[in-house]
Write a structure and sequence with these properties.
Helix content is about 35%, strand content about 20%. The protein has about 260 residues and is an alpha+beta fold. The protein folds into 2 domains: about 1-215, Alpha-Beta Complex (tt1808, chain A), CATH 3.90.1570.10; about 215-260. A 6-stranded mixed β-sheet has the order 1-4-6-7-8-9. The protein has a 3-stranded mixed β-sheet with strand order 3-2-5. The longest helix is centred in the C-terminal third of the chain and has 44 residues, at about 215-260. The radius of gyration is 26 Å and the shape is elongated.
Length: about 260
């Protein structure tokens, strides 16, 4: 329980601050498609990476009612033009209501653009993600930070990020000594590690003090381990109590024996 309470304290401490969106949560606007005519299949590498990071970010930000986290759905960013749309792997909108869930996200209706966007590179989209989308996200849409990551272990590692500086210029984010990139908007850092069992270069988030944000599976494992440690500690206390009581009985018996001599 101490670990849970410590993390909850940090969660409140490091939660980003922001203004609420000026628009209204909008599930669907007729005339704007919310499904691909020819869906693009994702690889297992991308599936594990996307689902893992989405779960971690969503869980961490769940406490705030005005943070919307989207995954692989359309964002329309110019009213009346259905061609002005993107479908990032994961995006976070600070200020937008968490519920209801949306079929698509319409920036003009919500009164907000995504704050942070993540794209995971594939052979068919990598060039666009590295180049064209930097300008689409950061200039055309008004996104604050944009990150790309290559999740397949067999391919060269690639993790990059960009943000808009106070003047509006696009600058690439420099990694720290451990290769992590910081998100000023989310008050988190991100770095990847090798998952040899699945051959995934798994990108994951960390609090500013280096504490990792865990997945649901990791949380269950930590909880189970904490229960085992508590039970072991309780057993040690019980054993010590039994030993002390046995010693006290022996001393009492010895005292009575001496008195009766």
């Amino acid at each position: 329980m101490k670990l849970v309470n410590d993390f909850a304290h940090k969660q409140h401490k490091y939660m980003p601050t922001f203004a609420k969106a000026t628009g209204k949560a909008t599930v669907y606007i007729p005339g704007y498609p919310y499904e691909d005519e020819v869906p693009m299949p994702a690889t297992g590498f991308h599936g594990e990476q996307t689902s893992s990071l989405y779960e971690q970010i969503s869980s961490y930000l769940a406490m705030h009612p005005h943070i919307y986290v989207g995954i692989d759905n359309f964002i329309y960013y110019r009213e009346g033009d259905v061609t002005k749309s993107v479908a990032p792997d994961i995006y976070v909108v600070l200020g937008a209501a968490k519920f209801p869930l949306r079929r698509s996200f319409y920036t003009w209706a919500e009164g907000a653009a995504p704050t942070v966007v993540f794209e995971f590179l594939s052979d068919s989209t990598a060039d666009e993600d590295r180049n064209e989308k930097v300008h689409i996200y950061l200039q055309d849409m008004g996104v604050q930070e944009y990150f790309i990551h290559q999740p397949e272990m067999e391919k060269p590692a690639e993790f990059r990020g960009w943000r808009r500086d106070p003047s509006g210029s696009i600058v690439e984010i420099s990694p720290d000594a451990r290769g992590a990139l910081g998100s000023e908007s989310l008050n988190l850092s991100f770095r990847w590690s090798n998952q040899h069992h699945s051959h995934v270069l798994l990108l994951r988030p960390y609090l500013p003090d280096g504490t990792p944000i865990t997945t649901a599976i990791e949380q269950r494992e930590l909880h189970a381990a904490a229960i085992i440690r508590a039970e072991e500690a309780e057993a040690r206390v019980a054993a010590e109590t039994d030993r002390r009581e046995a010693l006290e009985r022996e001393l009492e018996q010895l005292r009575r024996h001496l008195e009766n001599r």
